[in-house]
Model the fold of this input.
Amino acid sequence: MIKNIGPLECKVLEILWIKKQATAREISNSLEEMDERRAYSTVRTIIKRLVKKKIIAETTDPNERTFIYIPLLTKDELEKTIVDCVLGELLSRFKKSTISYLAEELSDNEEENKKIKQKLNEMKQNE
Done:
């Protein structure tokens, strides 16, 4: 269950989505190029968190005996996973408030509001 990711985790992921795979050193160097200079140990800690969250995978380069990191989720998949998790938690804890908020805030477009209200009515009928 991925609830959120931090700003530095996002930057590491952006690098991996562009490069498709990279070593910790390559990620660290890319961060420096983005004016995000961080200690190498900090970069390794962030990478380990992403591996633990199962957002990236760690494999071994047999020739150089180094770890290579590969994204397991696309940006869209990660965003959907986080939204599903957060929204699901909000709905389970604060169903009426969450639905009310979403209905009021999602759209200024009357057509969109009609669709939202229709969906809410369908949900009420299925309860």
Summary: The CA atoms of residues 55 and 78 lie 8 Å apart. The two ends are 26 Å apart (CA to CA). The helical segments are 7-19, 24-33, 40-52, 75-93, 95-105, 110-125. The chain has two domains: 7-71, 75-125.
